[in-house]
Amino acid sequence: MMSGNVISVYSTSRLSCLMFCFVVCILCCQTCLAETPDEPLAAGQGVFSFAIEGTEPAKTIRVFYVKPERTTANTPVWFVMHGIDRNADEYRDKWIELSQQYRAIVLAPEFNNRDYPGSRAYNLGNMFDEDGEPVDRSQWSYTVIDKVFDHVVQREGLKDQGYCLFGHSAGAQFVHRLMMFVPEAKVRLAVSANAGWYTLPDLDRAFPYGLDGSTADTESLKTAFGKPMVLLLGREDTDPNHKHLNKAAEAEAQGPHRLARGHYFFDQAKASARAMEVKLAWRLIEVPNVGHSSSRMSPPAAKLMARAPRAR
Questions:
Q1: Separation CA 306–CA 97 (nearest Å)
Q2: How far is CA 224 from the centre of its chain?
Q3: CA angle (174, 177, 179) in 5-degree steps
Q4: How many other CB atoms are there within 10 angstroms of residue 90's CB atom?
């Protein structure tokens, strides 16, 4: 009986020891995995989480993506910016066929309303806090894009040193402002489609309808004018009473609807570039028979992006 009890106790102790070792091994493996570079993205549609360093409190965004079945080190990266509904997954889905057609990795980052509330924190860049105080550049929504790009380039082993950027509606606001406030961004072509209103390239007009009071200055604006951007406007995007159209007096001064406001912004840019005696690398293109539709603006945008010169 005694020996039986001893065996029982010994077996239990041995089992506990083995369990302890197993747990330690698991924790060690988890630590190793955390230090191991991320694996390449799986082909097809997916989503990954991206932690934004330097944010307080810490922020993590989801990045919805499409990856063609066959990619190489020369596969391009395209960003697609969602609108006011923060529906990055739906925007990603609209680019599935375009991703396969042009063999581009498409990334649709999601700036949710919890971490990036309202237009202030998303399409106005999170450049100022709720009290109007400047926010550190590292926490701007605009600077997130380069960080995600660098992550994907490393993860996929890509050679490209720049990306294409598309945004529709509120996403178009994000795009044209990123180009002015972060002109050093690794953008080789930006396409701003059907923005509802604009931050004008006017250093004497108060932000957010102009650049006064922001970080932009003459030199940064000159740099921005030299970066390729297309204002892609639906010729039928002419509803002056659209539910999401900014009706503030400053926005109304830009025109009664999105088509008119896009032309107004472009005319202001041309005038500012002439006054600064610099070349304007921006273009305006109208898409016939299209109104305020991201799905119908996406194919012509993708065609432009596929033709963009590569940055190496």
A1: 14
A2: 18
A3: 110
A4: 15
